Amino acid sequence: MLQGHQTWVFASKPVIISSAAIGGPFEAQGNLAKDFDLLHDDLWLGQDSYEQAEKKFLEQACETAIKKAGMKKEDIQFYFSGDLINQIIPSSFSARTLAVPFLGIYGACSSAIEGLSLAALLVDSQFAQNALVGTSSHNAAAEKQYRYPTEYGAQKPPTAQWTVTGAGAAVVARQGEGPRVVASTIGRVIDMGLSDPFNLGAAMAPAAVDTMEAHFRDLGLPASHYDLIATGDLSRVGHRIAGDLLTKHGVTIPTEKLTDCGILMYKENQPAFAGGSGCACVATATFGHLLNRMRKGELNRILVIGTGALLSPMSYQQKESIPCIAHAVALEM
Amino acid sequence: MLQGHQTWVFASKPVIISSAAIGGPFEAQGNLAKDFDLLHDDLWLGQDSYEQAEKKFLEQACETAIKKAGMKKEDIQFYFSGDLINQIIPSSFSARTLAVPFLGIYGACSSAIEGLSLAALLVDSQFAQNALVGTSSHNAAAEKQYRYPTEYGAQKPPTAQWTVTGAGAAVVARQGEGPRVVASTIGRVIDMGLSDPFNLGAAMAPAAVDTMEAHFRDLGLPASHYDLIATGDLSRVGHRIAGDLLTKHGVTIPTEKLTDCGILMYKENQPAFAGGSGCACVATATFGHLLNRMRKGELNRILVIGTGALLSPMSYQQKESIPCIAHAVALEM
Question: Entry's InterPro entries (chains A, B) (predicted)?
């Protein structure tokens, strides 16, 4: 059911019956290491390119989630996937491996939450018994495509972020045990005129706030309804801006209740600049760490806001500013 | 409701209350010229780049469809859009202009049908009163990104296709007059090992056939149920292969009932190689020509199969074969 202008409320509360997070060597040294199902010490996973390695991460996340659900890949009815690589090739090639009906999506780093929202919609409206959501990012593949190959040693400002290497996946179903998807708020594109691709957190913060406010308004809920509110990859710079904007708009969220997956991901002493980013940031933090905390009973109701910067290297070269988007999902145990 | 393994049947039969097709100079000389709402004699539309021109085509298609529906842009509840350009920037930037909740999709040249399927799902399941679908492609932008800039004058084989310059859009709603979306069949990724990016029709034909067969099987319908069956952009080479595969699999469709939007688009004497392609191919042919024929009473029931080649220049350079997908929508007047 649509409530308000942009929030889908799922009456049947589709269940996330399993989820998985796969990470790379930098994530293995991070804060959330124990919440990953598998951590690789090699960025290549035995492949010939970083893009193929990213596909492998994604396939492993999907396989692991399917296995944890006690299912086989042919039991999956629909697969939603998207990623940052041109023409979402890791997603499309993982869909070839899975060989199930596939819907490609693109919401930049918000893709996991866009996919989770569509999967919940599909299951809630009885158009499927289950659906799989998966997404990935790879630090070296993203650097090569969006910035410079890492080997060039280009200098970065402290507002830059570190693309998470890894993948997250989740199986959403009508029946089963686990955290439930209660509602999704689909974001509008917000562009405040920022154009610095080394400061995406600042660009995305207004989109995150716009979607959070829409969510609270549509559902008539105070922010205090949630035990934790986590944005996707605003990281330190964007997180502070989002906090300031919320305060300015009269939305009070206690500091300890508002966090960001990009801040959670790495230790302070890791050279991750302002924090983590990439499709795998919100995906691994949510499908690993946050859902684990819900399953352990530490959190009952959370709101996750996937944030995406919808730029491309070409739109930047053509002097465009950065359109941003954020989608939110409300989960409850 | 899910019927069979991969077909969504829309009980409420969401209505396409309006649609629009915008084209460029080459399309103006084509077979379907009279079915375009607007034809431009300039590839640039006054913009500084082909990518920005593509965005303009898409915005015009959306504006025209919205206007024809007697609506304003703020009446649109959700917008689905995807295109071929890296990180789907024409779609994302058009979503910034529209400023309504946005879901980015990617199914290469099948995107219009993926979007139409998701829009129908959303409306049928009462999660929206209406949704807008839009997609675009631009010949010069696609050549530059996928092959060589046109100015290089690179030679092409006759199996190559001509990317349609233009955009198509449609408004899907619960109530109103117009052709109705009866069912959608979501395709699996099919890859028969072909790797020639100058012969995408051949690569995509098996995916089109797989989805058509799934559609007939899931709904227990013979192909003769439809007045016309149109694939998206198999063009002459792929169309012949699809016909042969269907015959081999025992599916009989009379020649005059099986067509392809890439063949319909241009005149035989236009230098379009094997025919049209690109996201705008199936989008403009369907949202313009085919829906017009339905509205005129010439066609009552049609099946449109959007076909997409999920390769990227990088996957080709990395010696990968071409994964393909096809999604089908059944429309009835």
Answer: SpoVAD, SpoVAD_sf, Thiolase-like
